[in-house]
Structure prediction request, 273 residues.
Amino acid sequence: MEKETGFVGKADEFLQMFKKGEEFTKELLKENEKLRYRIAQMEESIQRSGDEARIKVYEDRIALMEEELNSLKERFRQVEEENKDFASKYIEVEEENNNLANLYVASYQLHSTLDFSEVLRIVLEIIINLIGAEKFAILLIDEKTNEMVPVSAEGMAVSDAPKVKIGQGRIGSVAKEGESFFSEDLAGMGELNPLEPIVCIPLKIKEHVIGVISIYKLLTQKDGFTNVDYELFNLLAGHAATAIFSSRLYTQSERKLTTIQSFLDLLKEKPRK
Prediction:
């Protein structure tokens, strides 16, 4: 809702700037009419005056025109600045449109399947293509061992991703507290340390953390995070967690159902004589 409100506000600013341009044009036309009227008055005065009066009128006319010219130059400069601001805001609105579309597509894709492997693949694509991460891992909590186990990774082997106890180190703290971590220094992100991610996002269903996303390195062209990145992180924290949790339960139930069905089929077989 906040994004939509911000978008509507930018649209209102766009309309206000358009109205300012219209008002400025009307004012110019009025000023032009006044100037013509004063020139006409001067010309009438010239016809009734001698040489000295005519020179004085010309001097006044030149001074008046210079004053009007300077005034118009100043107004033109102001309008030019407003146009630059308008162009900047227009680009910003376009970016917001694209970002909203990306967020919608990402959210739709996350809930388009109940296959656990497919959901993990979609989460990987979102992190790569929309956030711009190069090396990262997805870790889920194993309720039996109370530790986070890597289930998928990009830019590194799953076996290279750490297994971390809840509350242990940076990753474990994020899983325990449910608060995202963002490193202020991205300069050393080329050196991979599985226990020291530059970004760590908890995967939460309401207040229950089911895992984390640990990002270790961004793509070369990515030198920092934008507002839409944080929106995507929030999306992943909620929607990705729900999609992963649901698909995991579904996959487990399917396996159990298959096992039970195989057992029932075995019982139905007639005993051999």
Remarks:
- Residues 51-110 form the longest helix (60 residues).
- Residues 91 and 97 are 10 Å apart (CA to CA).
